[in-house]
Amino acid sequence: MNNYLVVDIESRPQKNLVEMFNKRIKAPSNYKEPKVIEAYIEKAKLDSVKAMSVDTDYNEIFCIGAKANDEDAKLISLDELGQYILDGYILVTFNGKKFDLPTIIKNGIKQGLKLPYFQLKQMCKRWDTSKHIDLMELLGEEYRSLDTYLQIYLGISKKEIDFATCTNVELVQHNIEDVNNTYKLFKLFEQLV
Q: In this structure, are residues 14 and 60 in contact, taking their beta carbons and an 8 Å threshold?
């Protein structure tokens, strides 16, 4: 029997890179009035919070939620995740090959951690489910959100959250909810792997 670890991360802008990221914001060349230019730049800076959070070079991990087999979901550290991988667990994610794992790799390197980077990079290979099952990849070529799949196959919806204004507690609750929902969806489609 395989040991599975459902993983989901929540990320945010890496604080010491915000100024660097925002320096590249420029108003379109057809904007001429200083107030219009200033308003454009201010809105772009607000939007940069989301852009940085999903950019694997500019983000940092806020938390990692995990659920090993049928255990309760909990928060784990990067080091703990590395140990699960070394212990032979098969990771299960939703969009993990393009977001979660690249973010984990880059954040681990930034922090100088000794993680199983080669294994993590191998887990990003398209269509390979031997050590990592990315449900987004497994369920279809066309992009659909986790929430859409949950509604279609399980009749449930994710609780909406405003990432720009939520508290840390709300973000952790959202993370644990995503882990539990990803686990439910995985159990439904486990027969495909």
A: yes
